[in-house]
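[recover] target loaded
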């Protein structure tokens, strides 16, 4: 799905090459490989996704094997078009097996003091004095309510200073406002993975063991336990 475009004449070549192709038959692995081969450079690693920067430096791609909560953030961006506190999203594409590819304007880390101040404003009581900031907070509560009733293992709004970024034009921008309860979700995988398949859908969870957090934080024994549980090959 194209969320924003200025037309082919104004689209930089590195963005046009990504938005002009179909991604639905690629897995997250294939999408990541294609972007790297096209000159996109890995520049970030989160709990759920890998980020790459475009050759022009103008855009970033988020490649994720599995993250049901990210659909909520994209919904927030749709509900608040052209809001200065949300990133300009150029492409949101579903990948084979439940992954996602999102391309947006490149966002750098925000200065720590400004990021902390923005997070404090988000959690403050009462309306914010900036109408645009308050519009995002209000819309986020509505999105949270929608996904809370429809998404298993939903955690909700989880914004801290690490979710505050800075766009190339200098404005502060909020990202990844929502999250899943990963501990409970993967705990359920260990208990009975069929419950996860039934609640989320077999075609959407094929790569749920490949999120960066598991690769980065889990011991070999924990990875093996998850794999055995998921594949039904307990010792």
């Amino acid at each position: 799905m194209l969320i924003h475009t200025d037309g082919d004449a104004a689209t930089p070549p590195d963005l046009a090459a990504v938005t002009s192709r179909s991604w639905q038959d690629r897995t997250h692995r294939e999408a990541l490989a294609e972007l790297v081969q096209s000159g996109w450079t890995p520049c970030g690693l989160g709990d759920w996704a890998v980020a790459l920067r475009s050759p022009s430096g103008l855009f970033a791609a988020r490649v994720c094997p599995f993250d049901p909560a990210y659909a909520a953030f994209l919904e927030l961006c749709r509900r608040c078009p052209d809001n200065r506190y949300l990133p300009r999203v150029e492409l949101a594409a579903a990948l084979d097996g439940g992954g996602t590819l999102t391309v947006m304007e490149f966002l750098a880390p925000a200065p720590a003091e400004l990021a902390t101040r923005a997070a404090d404003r988000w959690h403050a009581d009462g309306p914010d004095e900036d109408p645009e900031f308050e519009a995002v907070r209000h819309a986020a509560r509505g999105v949270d309510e929608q996904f809370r009733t429809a998404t298993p293992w939903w955690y909700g709004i989880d914004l801290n200073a690490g979710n505050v970024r800075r766009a190339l034009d200098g404005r502060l921008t909020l990202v990844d406002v929502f999250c899943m309860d990963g501990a409970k979700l993967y705990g359920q995988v260990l208990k009975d993975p069929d419950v996860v398949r039934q609640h989320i859908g077999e075609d959407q969870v094929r790569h749920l063991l490949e999120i960066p957090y598991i690769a980065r934080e889990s011991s070999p024994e924990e990875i093996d336990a998850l794999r055995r549980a998921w594949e039904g090959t307990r010792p």
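[recover] notes: The longest helix spans residues 131-150.
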